[in-house]
Structure to design on (431 residues):
């Protein structure tokens, strides 16, 4: 709204009229707005949830500090969604396809998560929505994103090259090459492509269509179908991973904020023709608008963390966790970094895998020995560290013996998240 107003007067002599044309200015403004909204509106929303008695349902699982959380308001993901959407509507370019897709993803998964939280509150249990309905919702979003990437003429890539860059790099070496703005040939055609970024490869690109080249004239179409399948999987896996990570105060919000900072940097570099050429990474026309969205998202997460840090005054619930994971997944897909998610979001996937391993091993040992055994003391993984070891229990990994305080668990997971983000950037440099 504000962006549209300033865009209309950008050619006039009105003071500051051109400020809104700068991505960096709008991104900082979006971050500050979302942080302010989260801090101010967050308090009001928490009070409202308390009046409505929308408290967390606690099951006795033998975890340290668990009973103290009983009655803490949940559905706090509403704070994140409101704090994110309002700044995007105010300072975002609502004609940009990338911004439109991110807002649709936010509302879509927000409604899905809210429905799950509402059913838990209504029936006073932890079951909520059946898992198959969550998967259907996530698959539906994956289809929308994948098909839009395939069909929309506004979602393209451009292979920008620097004139004479290879000759210059042969003379002085790749680490000392200097590319000026005049050297860059930006008059390259925008193309629809199934290429994406992968680590440890010289040109950092992988084409899904290369896996279907044996299909001849149908190879490109089959490549897009494969891309859509990957999109669905990434959205579902990341959304569920974030959902499982939301188990202790501040863990999901803090870890996600770290991931989002890394993605924002990638989006800024990939959306800038100069930086993308200099760093030899994929240039995506129009994607710089995603930086504004991600800045607002980071502000919303940090603002929510103000109330969610130990001891939490509010929990995000599925309203927040499903939305957070889905946003991260869709954002990574739009900047063609979805194959970096297993490393960047490794905490989410380790939480996912820990649950799958625990369930599979329990079923296997129960069938083989007549008694179910476990790998971890409890899953998702962060609960393993929260629980006291039981001597003689049928658990493969029964250490640490003593339960760790959840604040220490969260801090250590944050540190791991920071290193994972750094390592993700390193893999793009080591080629």
């Amino acid at each position: 709204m504000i962006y549209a107003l300033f865009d209309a007067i950008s050619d006039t002599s009105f003071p500051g009229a051109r400020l809104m044309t700068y991505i960096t200015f709008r991104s900082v403004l979006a971050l500050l707005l979302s942080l302010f909204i989260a801090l101010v509106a967050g308090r009001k929303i928490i009070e409202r949830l308390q009046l409505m008695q929308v408290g967390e349902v606690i099951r006795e699982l033998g975890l340290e500090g668990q009973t103290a959380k009983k009655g803490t308001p949940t559905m706090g993901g509403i704070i994140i969604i409101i704090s994110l959407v309002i700044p995007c509507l105010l300072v975002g370019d609502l004609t940009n396809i990338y911004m439109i897709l991110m807002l649709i993803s936010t509302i879509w998964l927000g409604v899905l998560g809210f429905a799950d939280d509402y059913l838990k509150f209504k029936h006073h249990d932890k079951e909520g929505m059946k898992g198959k309905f969550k998967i259907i919702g996530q698959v539906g979003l994956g289809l929308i994103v994948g098909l839009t990437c395939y069909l929309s003429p506004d979602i393209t890539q451009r292979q920008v090259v620097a004139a004479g860059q290879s000759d210059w790099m042969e003379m002085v070496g790749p680490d000392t090459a200097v590319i000026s703005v005049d050297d860059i040939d930006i008059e390259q055609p925008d193309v629809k492509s199934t290429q994406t970024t992968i680590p440890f490869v010289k040109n950092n690109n992988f084409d899904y269509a290369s896996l279907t080249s044996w299909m001849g004239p149908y190879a490109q179409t089959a490549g897009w179908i494969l891309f859509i399948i990957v999109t669905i999987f990434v959205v579902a896996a990341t959304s569920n991973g974030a959902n499982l990570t939301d188990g202790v105060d501040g863990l999901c919000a803090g870890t996600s904020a770290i991931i989002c900072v890394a993605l924002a940097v990638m989006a800024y570099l990939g959306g800038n023709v100069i930086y993308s050429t200099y760093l030899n990474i994929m240039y995506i026309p129009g994607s710089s608008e995603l930086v504004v969205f991600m800045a607002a998202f980071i502000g919303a997460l940090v603002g929510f963390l103000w109330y969610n840090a130990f001891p939490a005054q509010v929990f995000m619930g599925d309203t927040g966790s499903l939305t957070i994971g889905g946003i991260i997944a869709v954002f990574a897909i739009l900047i063609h970094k979805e194959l970096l998610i297993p490393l960047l979001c490794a905490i989410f996937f380790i939480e996912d895998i820990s649950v799958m391993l625990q369930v599979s091993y329990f079923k296997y040992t129960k069938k083989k020995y007549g008694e179910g055994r476990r790998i971890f003391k409890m899953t998702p993984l962060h609960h393993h560290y929260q629980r006291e070891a039981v001597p003689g229990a049928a658990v493969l990994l029964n250490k640490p013996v003593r339960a760790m305080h959840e604040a220490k668990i969260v801090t250590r997971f944050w540190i791991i998240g920071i290193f994972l983000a750094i390592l993700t950037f390193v893999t793009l440099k080591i080629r």
Q: What stands out?
A: Residues 163-179 have pLDDT under 50 and may be disordered. The beta strands are 161-162, 184-185, 195-197, 205-207.
